[in-house]
Specification:
One of its GO terms (cellular component) is mitochondrion. Its cofactor is FAD. Helices cover 51% and strands 14% of the residues. By secondary structure, the protein is an alpha+beta fold. The chain folds into three domains: 2-150, Orthogonal Bundle (Butyryl-Coa Dehydrogenase, subunit A, domain 1), CATH 1.10.540; 154-261, Butyryl-CoA Dehydrogenase, subunit A, domain 2; 269-410, Butyryl-CoA Dehydrogenase, subunit A, domain 3 (Up-down Bundle). It is globular and about 80 Å long. The chain starts with a helix and ends with a helix. The structure holds flavin-adenine dinucleotide (FAD). Flavin-adenine dinucleotide binds next to strand 1, strand 3 and helix 13.
Length: 411
């Protein structure tokens, strides 16, 4: 029964989508609603929604309690074609649009933000770096593995370089046909289970950030997991410290060119942040869908608590915040597909995520006793939401970026 469901889920995603909605076809340009999707995208949304509810849903609580991703979920993500969403069919992927990736991340997050971020980092960061900056040979070698079975991670942050990412200390020194990497990375998502690692290291600190270079490494080259973090939220998503001790990487594994790692990191995180916005959007909708019906079931003073004005207005405000975050996220995805320079508007979806985070989540937890115990799964959404203000640029860094653009334009 389950297999049948999986097969039916998989078919639309694996099929080659003929058009990229929101982008190339002039017919789409006449449609203004941000809620308009192509038929293929609607099919994909339904498929991922069913997969998330039927396959991931029953495992969410156990994975959270165990602080560990169920290996079968990772296998299923690959089998569903969800780990090569934008990868070309030639390289074993679904050859779909960026918006399709965003929809998938959102749908997974409605059920489990940990599974969602696993899919997000793998697709929007790791696959995209190789698709955009890899040579033909690198694409042929790595993309099929990443679409079929090998999980990827993106290793930029270090103990002393978080928001100031380019202050990284990891060094790479050329030794014949190899690069030898020494240093460590911190807070690396997916790294406990990953087999492919994109590592940012400096090949010439005298050049500052212009020495930063991106390397492709595999676990069996000698990457050591020094520590697996215990976290408040997204506990099933692994976050580890990695050590590189004379890690030998073949010279052909430099990606995008020597000294161009900073450019890759900036450009990729600009796109990737839309994925994190989608994760927070899905999370917010998931919490809303669970919390709000309870307010109409729960009666006090002879009436449903959700119908008291004090509660009803909080629910209405939460719905407005949620819709605002949705429109910001979808719009950023469309603009990215249209090839519009992302930088100026790109942080906005993240402000959307902060809007939800600060507003609805706290309102919900204040207003509903049902969200305080673990059984309902609502408190998990609250815990999981906290990461939205931190990774791929903290809320302050997003605000700083937006304010710089405003200043440039108006001063
Ligand atoms: C669960 C998790 C998963 C992660 N996954 C990855 C991953 O896969 N790969 C990866 O490379 N990294 C990852 N990170 C790291 C993440 O990107 C960093 O945590 C983030 O960039 C913030 O860096 P930091 O934690 O060092 O905070 P800091 O940069 O030290 O910031 C601390 C505080 O100071 C504020 N601040 C800093 N600079 C400024 C400024 N100029 N103006 C105003 N306020 C400022 C920040 O907003 C924040 O509130 C992950 C982190 C977490 C927690």
């Amino acid at each position: 029964m389950l297999r049948t469901a999986l097969v039916s889920v998989r078919l639309p995603l694996r099929s080659k989508f003929p058009t990229r909605a929101f982008s190339t076809s002039s017919a789409w340009r006449t449609i203004n609603s941000l809620h308009t999707f192509s038929e293929e995208e609607e099919l994909l949304r339904d498929s991922v929604r069913r997969f998330a509810q039927d396959v991931v849903g029953p495992k969410v609580r156990e994975m959270d309690e165990n602080e560990m991703m169920d290996p079968s979920v990772i296998k299923d993500l690959f089998e569903q074609g969800l780990m090569g969403i934008e990868t070309s069919a030639e390289h074993g992927g679904a050859e779909s649009s960026f918006t399709s990736a965003i929809i998938s991340i959102e749908e997974l997050a409605k059920v489990d933000p940990s599974v969602s971020v696993m899919c997000d980092v793998h697709n929007t960061l790791v696959n995209t770096v190789i698709r955009k900056y890899g040579t033909k040979e690198q694409q042929e070698k790595w993309l099929p593995q990443l679409a079929e079975s090998k999980l990827g991670s993106f290793c930029l942050s270090e103990t002393a370089s978080g928001s100031d990412a380019f202050a990284l200390q990891t060094r790479a020194i050329k030794d014949g046909d190899n690069w030898v990497i020494n240093g460590s990375k911190m807070w690396i998502t997916n790294s406990y289970e990953a087999e492919v690692f994109l590592i940012f290291a400096n090949i010439d600190p005298s050049k500052g950030y212009k020495g930063i270079t991106c390397f492709i490494a595999t676990r069996d080259m000698g990457i050591q997991i020094a520590k697996k973090e215990q976290k408040l939220g997204i506990r099933a998503s692994s976050t580890c410290t990695l050590n590189f001790d004379d890690l030998k990487i073949p010279a052909e594994n430099v990606i995008g060119g020597e000294g161009l790692g900073y450019k890759i990191a900036i450009e990729i995180l600009n796109e990737g942040r839309i994925g994190i916005a989608a994760q927070m959007l899905g999370l917010a909708q998931g919490a809303f869908d669970k919390a709000v019906p309870y307010t109409y079931e729960r009666k006090q003073f002879g009436q449903a608590v959700g119908t008291f004005q004090g509660m009803a207005f909080q629910i209405a405000q939460a719905a407005i915040d949620l819709e605002s975050a949705r429109l910001l996220t979808y719009n950023a995805a469309r603009r990215k597909e249209e090839g519009v320079a992302l930088l100026r508007r790109q942080p906005w979806p993240n402000i959307g995520r902060a809007l939800w985070h600060n507003g609805c989540q706290d309102r919900r937890s204040n207003g509903l006793v049902g969200g305080f115990t673990r059984e309902t799964g609502i408190e998990k959404f609250w815990r999981d939401s906290k990461i939205g203000a931190i990774y791929e640029g903290t809320s302050n860094i997003q605000l700083q970026t937006i304010s710089k653009f405003i200043q440039k334009e108006y001063s």
